[in-house]
Amino acid sequence: MQNYKEIWDSALKILQNEVTTVSYDLWIKSLEPIDFKESILYLSTTSETAKNRVLKLHYENIKLALKEVSDEVVDFKVLDPDESQAYFNVLNDAVNETKTTSNNKCKFIEKFTFDNFVVGNSNKYVYAAARGVAENPFSKINPLFVYGGVGLGKTHLLHAIGNYLRKNNPELNVLYVTCEKFTNDYIEALRSGKIDSISSFREKYRNVDVLMIDDIQFISQKTGTQEEFFHTFNDLYQNQKQIIIASDRPPKEISTLEERLKSRFSMGLIQDIQTPDIETRIAILQKKAQQEKFSVDDNVINFIAEKCDTNIREMEGILSKVSFYATLLGKPKATLEDVSEALKDSILETKQNLTTDRIIDCVCKYFSVDKNDLIGKKKNKEIVEPRQICMYLICDLLDLPLTSVGQIFGGRDHTTVIHAREKVSEMIKNNNRIKIAISDLKSMANRN
Fold this sequence. Notes:
Largest sheet: 5 strands, parallel
Distance between the termini: 36 Å
Number of helices: 21
Number of domains: 4
């Protein structure tokens, strides 16, 4: 077939006449074709925000343009930077599968280093722990268990450890995978029905010096995978190999996780990454601007840091978009005016999409509770806490009278809403599990 890059170049010529100049320059032009497999064209973009905007506003236009230039392209997928890196890792794994396990090297994201990690009060202890493991693997910090909310830097630290070890201990066999990758590899080994496949799987994961598993919380409801990981963990630990694990919550709060795994995870050091304070967020944005050579006013950085307080990845994406918008208009430096213009559509759409129903749905999904139970009369603990958190979020994110919030939850009095709001506010200060839950739920509710 025609080269997939040539197909995309042809599609771009069509799209340039089908969408507005601003949309083309902001969202379409920056897409990069990275692979074509099973009739699907894979496109990489510059941020999660860009991916969401492309899929929301231009999916049909792109699909029609691709269909016009090639009958072999049935559909396309857009990958944000993290997904693109993961996709390349999968490709590399496939290539390396034919090689011996001793050569099982994985590629780490180059920009994720200790030098590029901004240290503040919210993450200084976990940074010190990660640095300590990198400088002295196989020490007393084994396993290292890192947890925190979405977009706070867990993956950055794991890749920083990998990059440090690769540079200073190149002889070590270091493997980084997501929990999903570990699970899929195990399922594939079982599906083949061959003893050699299971042996190859175990050799891959147990014949390493350092094993890093990201997003381990997704193993919680997979009994067979937990069993296999338990034995993998034991084998590595008994042979004094380094284990590093990342999760969005501490071991004791991963539901349906076997007690023996919770016990294993607690054998070393458990360290959390908290939501960064305003000073750290400003420092992160300043570092990002310096690295990417963005020219922005200080008040732009201060504004973004103040408005985006739960997800570092999204915060950096906003800065990139604002800088790109100012460059597009030929401005030497991004100003607050550019922030308003660049984010106008997404802010308006977020406000339109952010409703009580959306918040309730997010809470139900997050805590796995039924909507009728959440807004109903049940008073068991499994329902009361999510209900109070939901009331808190509606009060915090929407400008609604307290009596209206009470009516949503079965006609409850406004004093009940006040009690829930104040109780959750206090729990956020003293309970890290609740703090992470609120952070995650805000990100879910505000996601375009």
